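We now fix the convention by which a protein and its fold are recorded. The integers have meaning only within a learned vocabulary of local backbone shapes. A complete example follows; check for yourself that the lines match position by position.
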Amino acid sequence: MTALSLVSEPPGTTSDEIEIASTFRRYADGFALNNRTPAKFVERGPSIAGRLMAFASLMTIRPIVSVGSYAPHVAWPWGVIEFACRALPQASGSTRVNIKLPHATAQLVHAPGVTPASGNRRVVLYMHGGAFLMGGANSHKHLVNTLSRHADAPVLIVNYRLLPKHSIAMAVDDCHDAYRWLRAHGFNPDQIVLAGDSAGGYLALTLAQRLQRQNERPAALVAISPLLQLASRPKLWHLNNGVDTMFSARAFDALREVAAGAAANHSVDGEPEELYEPLAHIEAGLPPTLIHVSGAEALLHDARLAARKLAQVGVPVELRIWPGQIHDFQVAAPMVPEAARSLRQIAEYIRRATPGRGTETVAAAESCR
């Protein structure tokens, strides 16, 4: 099944025509048109590499996730994955500076050639994916470095606290602390782009909403294969539920069960924490948003719903759907050409969202080194 069969487009519209329209909108407007409907584009693909990656995920990752979903409260050693990813090679010439936050850590990444002297007036605050259970700066090493290089910006990736020991709200607190760190080091809201993949998309949107209540609006928000709705039932009825090569139907039930258990053990003002649904709190004034998602994953439901809700309140939103890819396929760059192309598009969006340059930001970037 491809995204073309799932996305409502005018009859006879081809992917090439959509790509031409995409280019026109990009250069004519800079952002998606704010006409109360999302700018929606279906990309070309999948390539042979993309198909092979999807098959590999179906044969390996999905069975593991499926088994784990039937025993969600077992202490699975998810942390081993992030530890093992320490062995992944680091891009030659890139720099990584560890940052201490009140309850977590973060890592400030500069790709080769991205230096304070370049005068880039932007920074990306990145929230990694991993179902709130795993992942970090090591697992997302290549993705973050690629974004830094193409966006010509440092990237601050947050090693937030994870389930099941900590609640999702505590992870949001850690991301908020990272945002405060950037503000304390001289970056203004219009120089900061919030970005995240999978569960990180939830954190990015939730953080944007928290900042909105404090009259802070970052330059833009980028969500990659975002998990934006903890409620599992809507996804169970989605057409992609049977073809997702990574997640079984039970996986979303299991995640919510673990998240609810962690929330119950964490009190807020003396009351048990409640699970927060960001899509139930969409309001006008949120940052312009870019969403990239596979056309063959169950989270296409969340992506399309978010795009529609954001557009309805006047937020410029662009939704790009990649047929036949696995969930979070951008992590597979450069092995999958669509992944590399997606990251370049995302980086271009970040650059457009933060076009200004100035000596004030150079000083801010230097203070982060």
